[in-house]
Amino acid sequence: MHALTIAALAGVTAAQAVRPQPATAPFTVVEATIADMRTAMERGRTTSRAIVQQSLDRIARYEGRLNAAITVNPRALEDASARDEERRRGRIRGPLHGIPIALKDNIHTTDMATTGGALAFAGLIPPYEATLTTRLRAAGAVIIAKTVLTELANWVASDMPTNYSSLGGFGFNPYDPRLDPRPGSDGRPVLPPGGSSSGIGTAASLWAANVGTETSGSILNPASRTMLVGIKPTVGRISRYGVIPITADQDTPGPLARTVADAATLLGALEGDAPDPHDPATRACTAPPRRDYTAFLRPGALKGARIGVPRAFFYDPVQIPGSRGTAGGLGEAEREVMTAAIAALTQAGAIIVDPADLPSVRAPAGDTLDDWPVCNGLSGAKGRDGRCSTVFKYGMKRDFNAWLTSLGAAAPVKSLTELRAWNRAHEAEGTLKYGQAQLDISDEVDLDADRERYLRDRAKDVRLGGRDGIDAALRAHRLDALLFPGPFGAAVAAKPGYPTVIVPFATVPNTGAGGVPGFEAQPSPFGVSFTAGACSEPRLIALAYAFEQATKRRRPPVLD
């Protein structure tokens, strides 16, 4: 979206959009935390309207290079002024009062379109608001924008690039917002920003923080790639009602922020005081008192904490049973990063248990995590899906059709079958740039005839990731958490629905543009992840915060 178009949407003139902040400005949103913004407003140094105006100025200034937003709220300044008026009257809604927050564009808002990045849903105004959107407003947030995403949370085409959609195009990583220079490139960035959620705007201080969603890596991957903190919560801790689904078995919203404190604040605002009757999974975990996760921000939390290193597969390659080949393992640069991270944990007082392998990594042939991928693309179609999990494709048929039904008359198409046909009819407009193999293999599912197979696959997923995976390692070594490189543990934790907190830590070389004379790719951010069992977010947040405070490795992108 063109920067000046966004400025106009928000009621900002072109001159205002590009005017630099005065040198004597008392407050700037650049790298400001939620606590910084809140304190500045409490002390009268700034207002919500001024903060939102600065955010809109930055959107207008950088959006042409980054493409971080699909939609900007045309009422953002009006909403901010309303929060200021409430403050003047002594009413503070909650910890996000007056703070600009962005939402992934698969989360319902009734004052902005919710599209999932799909052309078929362009302009769709849902008839109801997502529960999490309602909770953010109740906490005082100003919903400033809807972010780019990989189309339908990356369940359209098996080889769709991250943060690409037929409606929004490519999103660009602020740590190297250039086109891939290799001959024949399709317009993608040289440094992928991760997906399917986006951390682009938060990393570039276009807003304070944003809400993503994850089914298997879609919060942790963009957080790692854009030097952010991401919290992938236990499935059910945050309501999924009003979120375009892949599968309710693994879907969850969660925060992306520049600091652990900001992510913890946002998590508390997203979680309800009571289960959501629209989402039975919200009975899974009990919220902390007052939903205050900032109470767990303890700098000394690593002292005596037992942190396990799952060496096999996640750090070191493992022998593939019945063959001479290997699978998994880190490259040299990632290995150096994790060696430094383990040293930092030790220095902070943690007890490192190394190795603390997952038994399901070293199980007999046919029963290992590596042997059991998600059915993906045409190779995961019926008749070819004997050695992969059908959970995603089954869940998509079941839950996506149910979501379409919930839209009533507002639904542009009435079923997954109709969406596939719509995409074929509009191929000239770009709907099938990368095909729609994921939609195809989902739509061939027979929800009745295939249910027994799906249930077996779901049970195996949960066993390999949970009982014989993370749970077994935690129990055998009496661990507080497992330490995974980057987002590489996302898929195993996602199967049983377990939480992970990722923290910025380092950069590694980006070899994506290797061999192009004269082009020097900038390094790629790389985080470290803390994972444990269901409902362990308070402990994980404490560990992640202590690690963040001991290392302080995040660096903002250089855009000017």
List keywords for this structure.
560 residues; disordered N terminus; eleven-stranded mixed β-sheet; 12% strand; alpha/beta; two-stranded antiparallel ribbon
Structure write-up:
The longest helix is centred in the last third of the chain and has 27 residues, at 451-477. This protein is globular. Helix content is 32%, strand content 12%. The model is unreliable at 1-24 (pLDDT under 50). α1 runs antiparallel to α4 (48-66). β10 (318-319) and β11 (326-327) form a beta hairpin. It is built from 17 helices and 15 strands. The protein has 560 residues and is of the alpha/beta class. The strands form three sheets. An eleven-stranded mixed sheet has the order 1-3-2-6-8-7-14-15-13-9-12, sandwiched between helices. It has a two-stranded antiparallel sheet with strand order 4-5. The chain has a two-stranded antiparallel ribbon with strand order 10-11.
**Main pleated-sheet profile:** 11 strands, mixed
What's the gyration radius in Å?
Answer: 22 Å
Distance between the termini: 20 Å
User: How much helical structure, as a percent, in the residues?
Assistant: 25-40%
Q: Count the helices. How many? A: 17
Provide mean pLDDT, rounded: 94
Strands, count: 15
